Amino acid sequence: MLSDGCIRLGHPRQLLHALLYLLHPCSRASLYLVHPWTRARLNIGIEMGAKVETASKMQDTLKWLVAWAMLGAAVMAFYIYSEESLLLRVIGLLIVAVAAAAIAFTTDKGRATWEFMREARTELRKVVWPTRKETTQTTMVVIGVVAVVAIFLWLVDGMLSWIVRLLLGRGG
Predict the structure, then answer these.
(1) What is the mean pLDDT of residues 122-130?
(2) Which of 79, 100, 136, 171 could form a disulfide with 70 if both were Cys (CB 3.0 to 4.6 A apart)?
(3) What angle do CA 159, 162, 166 make, to 5 degrees?
(4) Measuring CA to CA, which residue among 29, 25, 28, 96 is closest to residue 60?
(5) What is the pLDDT of residues 33-66, one digit of tens each?
(6) CA–CA distance from 66 to each of 23, 52, 76 (Å)?
(7) What are the boundaries of each domain within the chain?
(8) Residue 155, burial from CB neighbour count under 10 angstroms (0-12, 13-18, 19+)
(9) Alpha carbon of 152 to those of 143, 148, 149, 166: distances in Å?
């Protein structure tokens, strides 16, 4: 590496950095390690957003396919090996499910989902939960209102059925 922080053409690490970038195109920070002339020659760069997104989407799609294939194979194995111990089958299924989730969380949507779950957990910690007394009082109010509405609807139903019977001439 030279004093300006760039790797010049012909340096052994240059190919390594270019390969690392091609394997992980969403890691744009690694581009700054490669000399601009080399980026142009290899047709990679910060300005090639469409190619980076296409490669990233293709990798994400492949990761999702692998994750779903793993889950499908695990469920099939769970039923194929039904004569084996239930405990072993459940443990195997859980191990594969965790591995598939780990693969899925490396995708863009997976990272976004993980970030959402972290933010939701943070917000959940900010909630001021009601005390036992407040919860009991609110529950009693709900039960009381339900009872009042039930009695009201019972009376309305009784009056309407009396009116219908009166109109039809079946009693009164």
Answers:
(1) 93
(2) 100
(3) 140
(4) 25
(5) 555 555 555 555 544 555 556 778 889 999 999 9
(6) 17, 21, 15
(7) 1-47, 55-127, 133-172
(8) exposed
(9) 14, 6, 5, 21
